[in-house]
Amino acid sequence: MLDSFTMSDQLYRDEFMSIFKSGANYGKMVDPSTSAEEVNKFCGDKITLELKIANDIVADAKYTGLSCAVSKVSSSLVTEYAKGKSLTHLKGLTEADIFAIIGFDLTENRKQCALVCFNALKKALHKVNNEYDQRN
Amino acid sequence: MLDTNTLKKDFPILEMKVNGKDLVYLDNAATTQKPEKVLAAVDTYYRICNANVHRGSHTLSDNATSLYERSRESVAKFIGAKPTEIIFTRNATEGINLVAYSYGLATLHAGDEILIGGWEHHSNLVPWQEVCRKTGARLVYTYPDNQGLFDFADFCSKLGARTKIVAVGHASNVLGTIYPVAEIAAEAKKVGALVVVDGAQSLPHLPVNIKQLSCDALAFSGHKMLGPMGIGVLWLDESLQESLSPFLTGGGMVLEVDENKASWEKPPHKFEAGTPNVSGAVGLAAAIDYIKTIGIEEIRKHEIELSSYALQAFADLARGFQNLRILGPMDATKRTGLISFHMQGVHAHDVSAILDQRGIAVRSGYHCAMPLHTHLGIGPTVRASWYLYNSQADITALVSGISDAKKILLA
């Protein structure tokens, strides 16, 4: 019988808080190539991701919306990671890759918060694909 | 105040440590913990009584049937009803769905209205949206005033000849406000509307007698009142039971079946299709026995004292922190034992995660009441909710944890 849980969530520490407070890549973009909205299944919060794409490479990525620190920090890290990457590479990312990119120890419930931006990214990439298919 | 040091010993889970800290369980509006007596009742049922009910002609089936029906009597007595008026469901949501489907879908037409509280939990909202979608009826909301109290004038202005159903939560799971169901029902009856009450947040905390409420249907859940999950109750007025068609059909609710049709058992059995949750019903009866031993009036008094203490502590906290907004009335006698709050610039999930690191369990989010949050113009909130085993020390730990969260997140 478990009589104690270990403290797995030492989250709100310096590195995490400094990314949270920096709000990296938070904001609207002028003339984005594509965008996608995603709702956090855990709570109903919503974020919007915008991408600027040039020659099948993500030139810029920004996000806006109401979200918790985990969702915000993850969005900052995922958008930062996406910059300069090819669409093919980004399409191949898995949830495990995203957790590795984020690098913080998250509880099961909070993993949903961390994946909101990634799910928006998948949606945006899917949209780009469809638009490409329609054009051709 | 109740002797919480002694009471806590009845609840094995409250001995736990979470994140290395003593568990401070303040998520009782979501679900309550179970006393040893409830755990033992469920365990004993499966060890020495388990059999399917109503149909078996052997001793175990007979015993299981007696236990199940005695549980029904126990629930009936607790709310001043007749046992035949008690329908066992999975939860309050299922009870409301039963009324929505059996009454709403069968009787409503385009142009009819369902008047509901703006404080409703999705359980007493989404089923009515579905009824409206399928019948062409319209959903009309009466929102509480700016203190979170019932707005009688607004309610009356929205009640009319088109109103066929009035569906209200007895107590809000976000604001804590207790709504005047008897007055609501009296007005609704004047226009001939059916009154459906969601009692999920009131039954565990207040003395409730259906004769005083004067409603037509009352749904509640066992797990929010120390009972097991998966057992709920719908009290349905006798006069309605005969005329309503069953919501679910199948085994256990029929008298005779031929190739093309079936006839129904008498109520309440006609509304209980399939093998029921007998151990759940037995566990709920044990929970009611436990509540009765302490006394629902004593529990109510205890919660009012804790709420007064908490409201004062929150008011003190808000003095040093303008961005803290406490929802609901500031008078503890007008609410059940919970406080929801919003901190501008701080997300509710982050507050609850920081509290969790201190062993304090609270709920954050929209609490299945998104329209209310939209109406209040706020995002997710944090909700702390107490019950008979919580003490002033738990509230002190909560307030101190919120102070820490503020320091960490707004530093």
From TrEMBL, chain A:
GO biological process, one term: iron-sulfur cluster assembly
Pfam families: NifU_N (PF01592)
Matches recorded under InterPro entries: NIF_FeS_clus_asmbl_NifU_N
Domain of life per record: Bacteria
Domain NIF system FeS cluster assembly NifU N-terminal positions: 12-128
Chain ranges passing through the membrane: none
GO terms, molecular function: iron ion binding; iron-sulfur cluster binding
PANTHER family per UniProt: IRON-SULFUR CLUSTER ASSEMBLY ENZYME NIFU HOMOLOG
Protein name (Swiss-Prot/TrEMBL): Fe-S cluster protein
Automatic annotation (TrEMBL), chain B:
Pfam families in UniProt: Aminotran_5 (PF00266)
Cofactor: pyridoxal 5'-phosphate
Superkingdom of the organism of origin: Bacteria
Residue intervals of the Aminotransferase class V domain: 24-398
GO biological process, one term: cysteine metabolic process
InterPro entries on file: Aminotrans_V_dom, Aminotrans_V_PyrdxlP_BS, Cys_dSase_SufS, Cysteine_dSase, PyrdxlP-dep_Trfase, PyrdxlP-dep_Trfase_major, PyrdxlP-dep_Trfase_small
Family, per entry: Belongs to the class-V pyridoxal-phosphate-dependent aminotransferase family. Csd subfamily.
Protein name per the record: Cysteine desulfurase
Gene source species: candidate division WWE3 bacterium GW2011_GWC2_44_9
The organism's taxonomic lineage, starting at the top: Bacteria, Katanobacteria
